[in-house]
Amino acid sequence: MSDISAFIFDLDGVITDTAEYHYQAWKRLADEEGLPFTRADNEALRGVSRRESLLRLLKGKVLPEAQLEAYMARKNAYYRAFLAQLTPADLLEGVAEFLAQARARGIKLGLGSASKNAREVLNNLGIADQFDAIGDGYSVSRTKPAPDLFVWVAGRLNVPPAQCVVFEDAEAGIAAARECGMYAVGIGDPTRVGAADLIVPSVAHLQLDDLLSRLALRTH
Ligand code: B16
Ligand code: MG
């Protein structure tokens, strides 16, 4: 028997693909301000907070705080216009089934996202009520790769970190999970999630029974 009692999911890149919307929103701001920004640049922002994303986009250009705040507000307004179109059809393949199977086994479910829009995304996807705890961009101040967000979610779930599995698509998220002793499942490109304990292309490739058997056999 596995001692695992909670699953903690990242949002963008694991449950749904909002990366394209983040790209479109940053790209519009960048174009309006004459800043270079490519899709490759955007890929490097997966799991990175809004403020840190802006600082990377500015590539060392120093601006007053009020200007940074104004840019972040504009990007977020562009992004939120896309979120209004989000529906349950935007759940990534296999996610609804995997969440339901885990819940049926009595596994607690948590969300650990860097996004301040996470609750709205979950509401629009129609799955907010599946989660026993929601950690988002407001929950802690130190962002991934600091382990704080996942530790915060585990605390809300009342489960020790060693009994949690994290599902993540970003390098910083895998590092955060491993830092606090959680089992890390990397979703997607191995060049990003190569440090995970297990790597799969998407949630649709996960079999709950196989995963729990594998976890039962692991040595801490
Ligand atoms: P917001 P995740 C992350 O989501 C995104 O991958 C990243 O691109 C974004 O900058 C960050 O959320 C903050 O989002 O601007 O909505 O607060 O992967 O941590 O679920
Ligand atoms: Mg992510």
SSE arrangement:
Blueprint: E1 6-9, H1 19-33, H2 39-43, H3 50-58, H4 65-83, H5 95-104, E2 108-112, H6 118-125, E3 133-135, H7 148-157, E4 164-168, H8 171-179, E5 183-187, H9 190-193, E6 198-200, H10 208-217
Parallel strand pairs: 1-2, 1-4, 2-3, 4-5, 5-6
Helix pairs in contact: 1-4
The structure holds 1,6-di-O-phosphono-beta-D-glucopyranose and magnesium ion.
Magnesium ion is lined by residues 10, 12-14, 46-47, 169-170.
Number of domains: 2
Total number of helical segments? 10
What's the story with the biggest beta sheet? 6 strands, parallel
> What is the distance, rounded to the nearest whole angstrom, between the alpha carbons of the first and last residues?
14 Å
Number of strands: 6
CATH architecture of the largest domain: 3-Layer(aba) Sandwich
> Unreliable runs, pLDDT <50, ≥5 residues?
none
**Bound ligand species:** 1,6-di-O-phosphono-beta-D-glucopyranose, magnesium ion
Proportion of beta-strand residues: 5-15%
Mean pLDDT: 96
Secondary structural class: alpha/beta
- In the CATH scheme, what's the topology name of the largest domain? Rossmann fold
In quaternary terms, these chains amount to: single chain
> Could you estimate the helical fraction of the residues in percent?
40-55%
CATH H-tier superfamily of the largest domain: HAD superfamily/HAD-like
- The order of strands across the largest sheet is 3-2-1-4-5-6
